[in-house]
């Protein structure tokens, strides 16, 4: 069943990032690996008056045993129950399969990410172009990836290979695919930094920005120092306007519950009301901290323009 997106504050990724880039801040794309954490993310956005992105990846859908329809239903139900008024994007992160993208769009997602970054440039372009054409025909924004972003925990992606984004290839890629946003590999990684240290190659970002006006996305936002993030956001011509944050949220939830092992979504739903409230509170506070001290998107909802 198609979910009708009739909340005026639910916007596409393109609309949200246009505003962020103009304002010189980044919007957090927060992964709700457990559907009962969606309300906590929305509450944090509302409390800080920040635009917000709620996301989940194809691999997370599989790992935590969630369907796009289930995630979408919980998102829209939570929007209604929480009476959320700040701008919100519902985003499908790293996805390899066009059928999953179609399912997500059917479920009311307003943004999807096609990740064909493991393929050679021409194949990546062809796959991303097909996904973008389909999504755009449904009024949905598209994020794609060029280069490969490493990982430390293999929850979002399968490989820990890293290949920095080439600025010249970025120009060709964006022109060919018509992607609305581009995830770039400039030194960060998914997961928790244990031995390697995060870095952001600002010169590479400047070179990419000089060649293309596409909205830039940084994956692997958990653990990146705030001052480093500020440099990436404040680039002349528009810097990073979307930052993915996933691991920090789950770690705060597990720490609050004194757990070390991840759960399935069903296990999380089966928690007692008291445990669930504590877990939601921990996630909410983590999101608020990121909004206020890392992304600098607090109070930006008041300046958000919904006009085309």
Automatic annotation (TrEMBL):
The keyword Zinc applies. PANTHER family: D-TAGATOSE-1,6-BISPHOSPHATE ALDOLASE, D-TAGATOSE-1,6-BISPHOSPHATE ALDOLASE SUBUNIT GATY-RELATED. Zn(2+) 2 binds at residues 115, 145. GO terms for molecular function: aldehyde-lyase activity; zinc ion binding. Coiled coil: none annotated. One of its GO terms (biological process) is carbohydrate metabolic process. This is Fructose-bisphosphate aldolase, class II. It comes from Halobacillus dabanensis. Dihydroxyacetone phosphate binds at residues 191, 220-222, 244-247. Zn(2+) 1 binds at residues 94, 190, 219. Binds 2 Zn(2+) ions per subunit. One is catalytic and the other provides a structural contribution. InterPro entries: Aldolase_TIM, Class_II_FBP_aldolase, FBA_II. CDD domains: TBP_aldolase_IIB (cd00947). The active site is at residue 93. Keywords: Metal-binding, Zinc. Its cofactor is Zn(2+).
């Amino acid at each position: 069943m198609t979910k009708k997106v009739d909340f005026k504050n639910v916007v596409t990724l393109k609309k949200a990032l246009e505003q962020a880039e103009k304002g010189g801040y980044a919007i957090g794309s927060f992964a709700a690996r457990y559907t009962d954490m969606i309300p906590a993310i929305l509450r944090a956005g509302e409390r800080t008056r920040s635009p917000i992105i709620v996301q989940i990846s194809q691999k997370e859908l599989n790992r935590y045993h969630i369907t796009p329809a289930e995630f979408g239903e919980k998102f829209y139900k939570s929007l209604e129950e929480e009476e959320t008024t700040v701008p919100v994007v519902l985003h499908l992160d790293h996805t390899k399969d066009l059928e999953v993208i179609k399912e997500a769009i059917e479920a009311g997602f307003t943004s999807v990410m096609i990740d064909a970054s493991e393929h050679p440039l021409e194949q990546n372009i062809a796959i991303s172009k097909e996904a973008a054409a389909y999504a755009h025909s449904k009024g949905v924004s598209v994020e794609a990836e060029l280069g490969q972003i490493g990982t430390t925990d293999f929850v979002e992606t399968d490989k820990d290979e890293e290949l920095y984004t080439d600025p010249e290839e970025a120009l060709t890629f964006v022109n060919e695919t018509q992607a609305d946003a581009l995830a770039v590999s400039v030194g960060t990684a998914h997961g928790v930094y244990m031995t390697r240290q995060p870095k952001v190659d600002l010169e590479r970002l400047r070179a990419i920005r000089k060649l293309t006006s596409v909205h830039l996305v940084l994956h692997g936002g958990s653990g990146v120092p705030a001052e480093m993030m500020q440099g990436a956001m404040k680039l002349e011509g528009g810097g990073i306007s979307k930052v993915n944050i996933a691991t920090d949220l789950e770690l705060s939830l597990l720490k609050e519950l004194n757990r070390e092992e991840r759960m399935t979504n069903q296990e999380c739903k089966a928690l007692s009301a008291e445990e669930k409230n504590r877990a939601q509170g921990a996630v909410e506070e983590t999101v608020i901290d990121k909004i206020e001290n890392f992304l600098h998107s607090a109070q930006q909802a008041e300046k958000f323009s919904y006009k085309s």
